What does this fold into?
Amino acid sequence: MQGKKLPAGLHRDTLAVRTALEPSQYGENSEALYLTSGFVQSDSETMARRFANPQEGFTYGRTSNPTVTSFEQRLAAMEGTEAAIGASTGMGAILMLCMGLLKAGDHVICSRSVFGSTMNLFGKEFGKFGVETTFVSQTDVAQWRAAVRPNTRLLFAETPTNPLTDVCDIRALADIAHGCGALLAVDNCFCSPALQRPTELGADLVIHSGTKYLDGQGRVMAGAICGPSRLIVDVFGPVVRTAGMTLSPFNAWVVLKGLETLNIRMQAQSANALAVARFLERHPAVSRVYYPGLESHPQHELAMRQQSGLGGAVVSFDVRGTDPQSMRTNAFHVVDSSQVMSIATNLGDTKSIITHPATTSHGRLTEDQRQAAGIGQGLIRLAVGLEHIDDIKADLLRGLDTLA
Ligand SMILES: *Cc1c(COP(=O)(O)O)cnc(C)c1O
It folds into this structure.
């Protein structure tokens, strides 16, 4: 399936707007949305050829669709990988990754700080199929090296993490993976290719939740894996065809258009986030701010090297309190005093979102597990959007300046 003919050497910003399949016979300027489950074939020979090799053309929507292919080509161009494959959700992409690469008896090394559902998939669900996972520190590379076994097939990382924005060293993890014949997959949800391109640092595969910044406006669920054609086409393609975690054409179309503004949104939202982080650091009711763009962040220099000099749009902070109960009361007060930001648990939206991780995303952990993960009752996470910075600051001050 041919992409639009473009000159070589275009900048990434241009590829984000221009990469797609050829327009249809009508010459539409904005990429078309093909809502169809099946594709009519000209004759039996063509049909047979396409069934034997899906790269030859479209047959059935579970296998591929032109709008989905345009999204995949554009995302791959932005990540700098040979290919990409869409999935119904970010978790669908991780399921596809595991189904394609792992079998009973294999071993995975995964950061202890990855997205909660990712933890459950590796820790619980795949255990049922005889895949064992060792969870290690996000930041201590020695723990990753020490966890390697003869049957280690996959290292899985996410950086920066949710909600504490811990950063891992992608190049160091890639070296460990390749030293033991394993692959490194990086969940690039928080940075997106606008800030961080893990394969340039040695990662083999990049995972996306398109639900977050790729769409960027909180409209649809989507996911993807980016990587070399030999894995995307030959390993993951058959998994999607048989298991059916296919990306819907409508959702692919929404995210395809979202990608056109990804870079400019990430620049603007990161700038807003840095300003919010600096402002919070100076507020007396705040005891600690977690943001890779701050000099006080433990992996600030690594983050600036890995993330195009930007911190991303997620900022977390602890409000003061004398004990867990008072911290929680104070955190709830700050969240509930906001009149502009949304109280919600997702992120990656142009609308700023404020949330209390200890009672939402991390609510099912025991207090001890939460302590170990560093998720205190005073912790608040902001996914900073595109509102005017002064309005975001004022919204936070409504609660911070009126704490008892
Ligand atoms: C949201 C998220 C996912 C899962 O994506 P869905 O599209 O919700 O399935 C995976 N990883 C990270 C880091 C996320 O934030």
Summary: The longest helix spans residues 262-281.
